[in-house]
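Quick sanity check, Protein FixA:
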Amino acid sequence: MSLKIVVLAKQVPDTRNVGKDAMKADGTINRAALPAIFNPEDLNALEQALRLKDAHPGSTVTILTMGPGRAADIIREGLFRGADNGYLLTDRAFAGADTLATSYALATAIRKIGECDIIIGGRQAIDGDTAQVGPQVAEKLGLTQITYAEEILEVGEGKIKVKRHIDGGVETVEGPLPIVITVNGSATPCRPRNAKLVQKYKHAKTVTEKQQGNLDYTDLYDKRDYLNLTEWSVSDVNGDLVQCGLSGSPTKVKAIQNIVFQAKESKTISDSDRDVEDLIVELLANHTIG
């Protein structure tokens, strides 16, 4: 059986390079000041989707992402690795969204895409670590969900069998299609870019990118429709502005602290009872422990 698969992917700031300009005054992330990468666990999810495509001829993999214009890079990256197409949700009205507003926007986009068998994404994004968006999308669409997936074992007869990695062990569960699945970082890493696909899709652009850029290959977009990446605004997905972006986000950041770890003076102690006792007294006195 062929499958229609939607991969929820996010462009996130590289948290390995967070500096003093990482946050704005309103408590939202200053994405323009940080290097952007494909969210790691979404890559694990993409690999599971591509494996299903390999195993079920005729299946399609669609990338769905929300973000500013540069988030189109995520769609291109997915295409380079084997996805078939993608959609970019981009609108100023989407900006500043928490997980509730994000899941609302993604759910409305999925409804516009149409019927699909599997919606899959990473367990969580490294810029929030909430693990809420996938389950919230499932709830908004009224679909069954399987979280903490490590491997999709089998799909057939309207059902899917998944191995989950949970605290204390592993379990195998079964659920009906259509379904929403979130994937752990412990799942199989995503395959590398395919050189032929890079050559095929390297000029793929959204309408906005084509308007802003100096196009040397204008004629290609008329001849090769697959190079035209779809971008949707709030109105395109029939979204409610009240439920999008900051206005639809009940989560508010009240305060931000930049914690900088600095090397302090060090001391060496022996394993004698006296040295250990003195260390415990010192740690208790400065409230490091106790």
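Posting the structure with no commentary besides this: The mean pLDDT is 89.
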